[in-house]
Amino acid sequence: MADESKGILGHLPPLPRKALNNSVIGMEQAYRQRKGLPLLSDADIEALKAGEPMPWERGDGAGASAAPTAPAAVSAPVAAAAPLPPPTASGVISEEVAKWVADGKKWSKSAIAAEQARRGRKGLPALTDAEVTVLLGEPAAPATAASTPAPAAKPAATPTARPVAAAASAASSVAHAGESTRYVGTPAVGTSKAAAAGGLAAVGPEDSEINRGRRRFAWTAVAAFLTAWFLAFFRFFLPRTLFEPATSFKVGYAADYGLGVDTKWQQKYRIWVDRTPDRLFVIYARCTHLGCTPDWKPSENKFKCPCHGSGYDSEGVNFEGPAPRPMDRAHVEIAPDGQILVDVSKLYQWPKGQPSQFNDDGAFLPV
Ligand code: FES
After folding, report:
1. Closest ligand 1 atom, CA of 321?
2. Lowest-confidence segment of 11-15, 290-294, 295-299 by average pLDDT
3. Which residues line ligand 1 (CB under 6 A)?
4. How many Å lie between the centroid of ligand 1 and the Cα of residue 359?
5. Strands 295-297 and 340-348, sheet pairing
6. In this predicted model, what pLDDT tens digit does every residue of 163-201 receive, in sequence order?
7. How far, in Å, from the CA of 205 to the mean position of ligand 1?
8. 360: domain CATH number?
9. Backbone phi and psi for residue 270, each to the nearest 5 degrees, phi listed first
10. Nearest-angstrom CA–CA distance, 96 and 89
């Protein structure tokens, strides 16, 4: 009984039933269109609006939609006289479609899908395979068993044929895999489910190589973005470490240095080794004005700061420019292996107007 009711009654509310409005009737028509059930006739619709039972509910078998119309009748000019005719047979081209083709209007698959959706909403018969083929401008397919008139047209127009017609129509929708039934509506009204229920392989763009390439590109971009985001997130938990050079280091033996300024450690340790007749000391290469690194000018026997022009003599004592005091000297001592051990973390200064630290222990090595 349930199957029979579904085949004949669709989703109509059970009796006793109040008068239905156009919206409910439209949804019923759309449901029947999707399921391949016979559509409601004008008489059925008027009866529903009046709140009267359907002919098959009365048991008198007088329903106008009791049997789908024959293909020839459906292929006549569409719908002016019958607003809600059943689907046309798959091999018939209606005059409306023939006129579109004659007008030279170009149709894409998406346009045909939209037209199918519109017909579904309006309760009009769906485009047949033949109509879709001519609208796409493709060569007509050879006649096959699948292109024969739809099973819905087979039953005789007798009231008792309704269940048979409904069952045959539903079976047709399952077995039918033509182009016209592939586009049965927009996804918003659940056509993917309807297509799956009808046994269709898929609804939507075809799985071409171009589309697969686009999907690969999109997923690659998503994966790259997520990877970069994860790395940035992971980096957040790592400590911020600065690898500064050691402040204590060896610079060789005192015998390695002759009189004067030696600049070979300037780049690596920012120091100059300076030897006078009686001592060896290390100048920290930082201008006492604002911290620039002065240049050693051997031809002028002085240090010259490139920033603001401060000048220092060969022992790092300022004599011109804005520098307020001589350059600082690093702590020096003899390591156990006899090399000079320099420690720039401990500096000796000669602040302006104050005693000099340059003669303190560790500020120089006697030679
Ligand atoms: S930083 Fe050397 S003179 Fe200004």
Report:
1. 3
2. 11-15
3. 287, 289-292, 305, 307-310, 321-323
4. 25
5. unpaired
6. 444 444 444 444 444 444 444 444 444 455 545 544 555
7. 71
8. 2.102.10.10
9. 60, 50
10. 15
